[in-house]
Specification:
The complex is a heterodimer of chains A (482) and B (400). Chain A is α+β, with helices and mostly antiparallel strands and 482 residues long. Chain A is built from twelve helices and 22 strands. Chain A has a nine-stranded mixed sheet with strand order 5-4-6-7-1-8-13-12-11, with helices on both faces. A five-stranded antiparallel sheet of chain A has the order 20-19-18-21-22. The chains are: A alpha+beta (482), B alpha/beta (400). At the A-B interface, strand 16, strand 18, strand 19 and strand 20 of A face helix 5, helix 6, strand 5 and helix 10 of B.
């Protein structure tokens, strides 16, 4: 039975910073940035991290398909919010996957994403959801600020695939092209020419050639070569491996930047959107060695589509030219926050555990006698004139579209990206929630606006280093006032 | 319906501090200030008090837990003292406790006092606080003005209003209150403002600008209540009695169920309906002489006019702009300046409203005195429009 990718998807945050804005703001300090000032980079809103982006990529992948048979969940990142609280389990709760899931975090290298995908394809134990998400911090006026982006990608691995897994070859070589020690925020990079010459000039092509040989694939058969890395590096790897230059996949450098360990997977998701039956795809992951994975698109390719997919997320963009605002939203600026930011955000772990289905999964209740939907689920039903006791069954609300009933733009509230838009959302089919809004443009909200719920950071307990998550309302992908 | 408390309890005396930034005063100082005035007005001494109720909204910053701070500050003679908190209806809740004690016969004379020290919190506006560990996890980051601004969105959609028309109408609410407050020496904000100032003020929570929001202040107010018979035996001739006192608390339907459109306040409608029944009011627009309603935000006052049944459905915007609630209008509203000019020391506000009704009914309101008022209504709304507690009190001349 063929194993491979059965579903695929991605997530790219909505905010885009033109690279020219970075170059202009920092010209006094690093005029050399001007040479890189083309296109734009994407960046996560203040309320997004690897976990929230992983959730969106998984939702993009899973769509309305059943989640009940997902048996394993693997999440890859080098920017996990938690060092010891399994990040993939938070993703699992947000996705409302069954409790009987084997969850695992994979970290430690830019290769974590491809290694997780490789392990899932080689493993067994029921359909496996593989998610890679990355939110790398970049120092002000450094090259990485220009080249990086934040994003996530996800795949469902199982039988009857759209892209059959043909095999993989990996090497492990301690080449310290860059590193980030535990507890540090930023990468330390060695000379980029050396990385090109030895990393992408020797380690990667050698691994690709060995992989093709072991899998009995001819270089000329490769229709798509996915290599994330510095500008032009894919063409070089292709040339040295004998693969056609036309097979090199777009790295999306112009429109979003490099999303680290998520990037090869995101590029693969992009390729799968236009791959044709029979085409062979080679995916490379580089970092202290190299992963090379090969897939063949099956006749089913084209029959399964992500919710938005890479191109859809790229089209859902909001340009933000204000460099200071970008710095504040990415946490690089110690902006005056005022006394309202001082509220103690301590989380009672007992309360979170009891209410995890509601808080992380946005599970409401539906009265089995009256059909009334409510959030949260309570013992006594809210249904008017029928306050039944213990008649409710769990009712997931996260994926239900809704519309704005009431709202405001609150300028008194503390919010890292003011004003705070919040209001009451009425879900289609019943149930409502007064929630913060996110990813909204000023003046674009009105009563009746269509909404989509998104899993986001609600607040951060900075005293105790704990990120608090909850669901927020965002304008629907094609939001219109109903 | 129960028989109610109509005319069973009379107000023996009242006191109210100057509201404002009382940098020089602790909560205990404010309690004493309101108490001294009320006791002098009542003409009794502390040994005649049988029970007391204390209202505080933000207990941590104002006085801390329990009723002990009131008992110590006033040196009450070891009588029962109860502390109550019910959001912005807290002051009226203390009043309700004292009134019910007298109506039941459990106490001959009871005291209700509300106090708040908001200006020790470091905040402009109300402080941020927890609503409980469970609620907080599934909540939003909005503030009080943000919560009440939702009402503007809901009301505008409910009646298909132009945003600019509604903005100008709620602007008139604030202009009117400032004009009234300018005449009141106990008010915090004593400056008249014009409509352009209101409309062009910085935005706090759309569409509420700075002048659509009530002030934030320190203050205390106190009421001493007894039976009409005891009041007469103590030498009082003109009596103000309680006609109705009703409280309605949400069952969560507005926020959790379906059907509420966000354009009115359900608890106000419930409380008002019960209060009119208890007080024998058949035609509120015709019978009520004056009102002090919960104008925490201008939009709240406007919407409340319909919820109280004084303006017809959808007509509040016209009544407001036609001046029906102005000092010289059909039913003067916020004749003392309202929360808008007094600010809103949570625990004190409900009692401050009753204080103004009491002064007006006894003809003691000085420059603000209305001509021959008979029935006064006060209204408090706590929480937020979607999850609220509402108190409606009706007072009037005893024997009418």
């Amino acid at each position: 039975m063929a194993i491979g990718i059965t579903r695929f998807g991605a997530y790219i945050p909505r905010l885009r910073l033109p690279r020219a804005a970075i170059a202009e703001a920092n010209a006094w300090y690093n005029p050399g940035l001007k040479g890189m000032a083309k296109g734009e980079r994407c960046f996560a809103n203040w309320d997004e991290d690897a976990i929230t982006m992983a959730v969106e990529a998984a939702r993009d992948t899973l769509g309305e398909s059943s989640r009940d048979d997902v048996g394993q969940l693997v999440m890859a990142s080098t920017t996990f919010p938690f060092a010891d609280r399994q990040n993939s389990v938070v993703v699992k709760e947000a996705l409302n996957l069954p409790d009987a899931v084997a969850a695992m975090d994979v970290a430690g290298s830019q290769r974590a994403g491809t290694s997780a995908l490789r392990a899932a394809c080689l493993g067994s134990g029921g359909p496996t959801l593989v998610v890679a998400a990355e939110k790398r911090a970049a120092k002000v006026a450094g090259e990485a600020e220009m080249t990086t982006g934040h994003a996530a990608a996800a795949f469902l691995i199982g039988e009857d695939p759209v892209a059959e897994f043909l095999g993989a070859h990996s090497t492990a070589v301690d080449m310290v092209d860059h590193y980030r020690s535990s507890g540090e925020d930023y990468d330390y990079n060695w000379e980029s020419r050396w990385v090109r010459e030895i990393g992408f000039g020797e380690i990667v092509p050698n691994a690709v050639k060995e992989a093709l040989s072991r899998l009995s694939l001819k270089a000329s058969e490769i229709a798509h070569l996915v290599v994330a890395g510095p500008s032009g590096i894919g063409a070089r790897v292709a040339a040295q491996s004998g693969i056609s230059a036309t097979a090199v996949a777009d790295t999306l450098a112009a429109t979003m930047g490099d999303s680290g360990t998520a990037h090869p997977l995101l590029l693969l998701a992009d390729v799968l959107e236009r791959a044709r039956p029979g085409e062979i795809i080679v995916v490379v992951g580089f970092g202290q060695g190299c992963d090379v994975l090969a897939f063949r698109a099956t006749d089913r390719i084209g029959s399964v589509r992500p919710l938005l997919g890479v191109r859809g997320w790229l089209a859902r963009r909001a340009e933000m030219r204000n460099y200071a605002r970008y710095l504040a939203l990415t946490g690089a600026l110690d902006i005056e926050r005022g006394i309202r930011a001082e509220l103690d955000q301590q989380t009672a772990a007992t309360v979170l555990y009891r209410n995890r289905k509601a808080v992380l999964g946005l599970i409401g209740g539906r009265c089995t006698k009256t059909g009334t939907v409510q959030f949260p689920m309570t013992r006594v039903s809210v249904a008017r004139n029928a306050h039944e006791i213990d008649t409710q069954e769990p009712y997931p609300l996260a994926d239900l579209p809704g519309k704005v009933l009431t709202f405001t733009a609150d300028r008194l509230a503390y919010n890292p990206n003011p004003p705070l838009y919040f209001g009451t959302v009425q879900f289609d089919g019943g149930g409502r929630l007064t929630a913060d809004f996110t990813d909204v443009d000023e003046g674009a909200v009105d009563v009746g606006m269509r909404t989509r719920m998104m899993f986001r950071i609600r607040a951060v307990d900075e005293v105790r280093g704990f990120t608090k998550y909850f669901w927020k309302a965002a304008p629907a992908f094609n939001a219109k006032v109903a | 319906m129960a028989r109610g408390i109509r005319d069973k309890v009379a107000i023996l005396g009242m006191g109210c501090t100057r509201f404002g930034e009382r940098w020089e005063s602790d909560a205990a100082d404010l309690m004493v200030e309101a108490y001294v005035e009320a006791m002098a007005d009542a003409g009794i001494d502390r040994t005649q008090l049988d029970a007391a109720w204390l209202a505080v909204g933000f207990e941590a910053t104002s006085i801390g837990p329990s009723s002990i701070p009131l008992s110590i500050a006033l040196r009450l003679p070891n009588i029962p003292v109860t502390k109550v908190e019910n959001y912005c209806a807290s002051g009226t809740e203390a009043f309700r406790g004292a009134v019910y004690a007298v109506a039941s016969g459990a106490a001959d004379i009871a005291l209700a006092l509300g106090v708040e020290k908001l200006k020790d919190t470091g905040y402009g506006g109300l402080p941020v606080r927890s609503r409980g560990l469970v609620y907080d996890m599934m909540s939003n980051g909005g503030t009080a003005p943000g919560n009440f601004a939702q009402l503007a969105a809901g009301y505008r959609a409910r009646h298909r209003l132009d945003a600019g028309d509604l903005k100008r109408a709620i602007g008139h609410v604030s202009v009117k209150s400032h004009a009234n407050g300018a005449k009141n020496p106990r008010a915090h904000l004593r400056k008249a403002v014009d409509i352009d100032t209101v409309l062009n003020a910085p935005m706090v929570a759309e569409p509420l600008g700075l002048y659509d929001c009530c002030g934030v202040s320190d203050g205390a107010a106190c009421a001493i209540v007894t039976t009409p018979e005891i009041a007469r035996s103590l030498g009082k001739t003109d009596l103000v009695s309680v006609k109705a006192l009703q409280l309605a608390v949400t069952d969560g339907w507005e926020l959790q169920g379906d059907g509420w459109d966000g354009g009115y306040v359900n608890t106000t409608r419930q409380a008002a309906s019960r209060a009119y029944q208890e007080g024998g009011i058949r035609d509120p627009r015709g019978e009520i002489s004056m009102m002090e309603v919960h104008d925490c935000f201008s939009i709240t006052e406007l919407v409340t006019m319909e919820d109280l049944g004084v303006s017809a459905e959808g007509r509040a915007i016209h009544d407001v702009r036609d001046g029906f609630y102005d000092a010289d209008g059909g039913i003067p509203c916020q004749i003392d300046g309202g929360l808008k000019c007094f600010g809103h020391p949570i625990g004190a506000s409900g009692l401050r409203m009753v204080y103004e009704m009491y002064l007006q009914l006894l003809g003691r309101a000085g420059e603000r005195q209305l001509k021959d008022p008979r029935i006064g209504l006060t209204h408090n709304l706590g929480g937020m429009p979607s999850q609220s507690v509402c108190a409606v009190t009706i007072v009037g001349r005893h024997g009418e």
